[in-house]
Amino acid sequence: MPCIFIENGKGVGLDPNDPLYVSYKHNFPGEPTGKDNPELLRMHPSVGHDGAIVNGVPRIGFQKGGKAAQWKDEDMAELFLEKAKGFVIENKDKPFFLYYGLHQPHVPRVPNQKFAGKSGMGPREDVILEADWCVTEFLKELDKQGLAENTLVIFTSDNGPVLDDGYQDQAVEMVGNHKMAGPLRGGKTSLYDGGTSIPFMLRWPAMVKPGVSDALVCQMDLLASLAALTGQTYSDKTDSQNTLPVFLGKSNQGRRELVIEGYFNYAFHQGDWVMIPPYPNYYGDQEEADFSRLGNCYQLYNVKEDIGQQHNLAEKEPKRLRQMMITFEKLKRETGKITDY
User: Fold this and answer.
1) What is the Cα gyration radius of the chain?
2) 279 pLDDT tier (thresholds 50, 70, 90)
């Protein structure tokens, strides 16, 4: 909530005679919800997501009014794409920065009719096709405007993949033999690499040659790296590191170490090693059942030799484990941003 578009601080299409009210605590009297009125739904919740109903989809939170402004999920992709393309056209003759946030394949996964049923693997895979199409169409616009060669494009995400993320869209049942995180273990909310590793692709034809790097970097490093690229300054009270040479394919020396986060819990990545502290009260979903069984002990993995994190080396590598524990605790004290586990 609210399930309307906000542009320049104002609700798009709001009728002054039908004001919008939002609550995350209590429903408004007489308003249907996904929990109480399943007969009104075209998509049913699995966990949570059972509040106000907008466009036949139950949401997080409660909403009343603003009927004329309510969005239609299946139209979002093309709307956002056209907005992004329009911004590029408007600013093509000067330097610009554009953050283009794709809403697919995030839930609720409601594909446009162009893509509904096209994957043969349900709505989750349909909206992945839709996201691919959006990216392709946007890159085509850069080509059309003569901007592709000297425009830096970064494609990335916020966390590892997930199948069941709040709605009954048959993602688990229809995934087949496909592994959502490839060879990596875990997914969204997990402290394994399947949860903390994310897609990160960079394209700048004039400066970057195509290739693959296994250097350790983080999205936080974009601040320092792009500041160095553009000659800008910023507060030094950040965790960002300048890894611009890695982004430009001129070096494989990324970060030496990185604190990683799962579902409000933390682990430590140092070189080829990942240390996961014990979290006895960790409540993982079914995808994280394996992690839950290891929640009372330290875990240590060499992800270069064991990319799937199947072999816990904590007992075989006590010196390395202790050194990583000490460094991890030191970082916690220095930043003051990580609570005790």
Assistant:
1) 23
2) confident
* Contact (Cβ atoms closer than 8 angstroms) between residue 4 and residue 18: no
The model's pLDDT over 113-129, given as tens digits with 9 standing for 90+, comes to 999 999 999 999 999 99
Question: Mind giving me the DSSP string for 207-225?
Answer: T--S--------TTHHHHH
Residue 230: strand, helix, or coil: helix
**Long-range pairs for 248-254 at CB < 8 Å and ≥24 separation?**
248/204, 248/207, 248/208, 249/208, 249/209, 249/211, 249/213, 251/215, 252/213, 252/214, 252/215, 253/215, 254/213, 254/215, 254/216, 254/217
What pLDDT, in 10s, does the model give residues 82-99? Answer: 999 999 999 999 999 999
| Cα–Cα distance, 141 to 133 (Å, whole number) | 12
Q: What tokens were used for 200? A: 């990160």
Coil vs helix vs strand at 187: coil
Contact 136, 143 (CB under 8 A): no
Query: What one-character-per-residue DSSP string does 239-308 give?
Result: -----HHHHTTS-----SEEEEESSS-EEEEETTEEEE---TT----GGGHHHHHTTTS-EEEETTT-TT
Query: Percentage of the chain with pLDDT > 90?
Result: 84
The dihedrals phi and psi of 76, each to the nearest 5 degrees, come to: -60, -45
DSSP state of 322: H
Phi and psi angles of residue 296, each rounded to the nearest 5 degrees, phi first: -100, 5
Quote the CA–CA distance of 48 and 169 in Å, as a whole number: 14
Burial environment of residue 282 by CB neighbours within 10 A (0 to 12, 13 to 18, 19 or more): buried
pTM of the model: 0.90
Residue 16: how many other CB atoms lie within 10 Å: 5
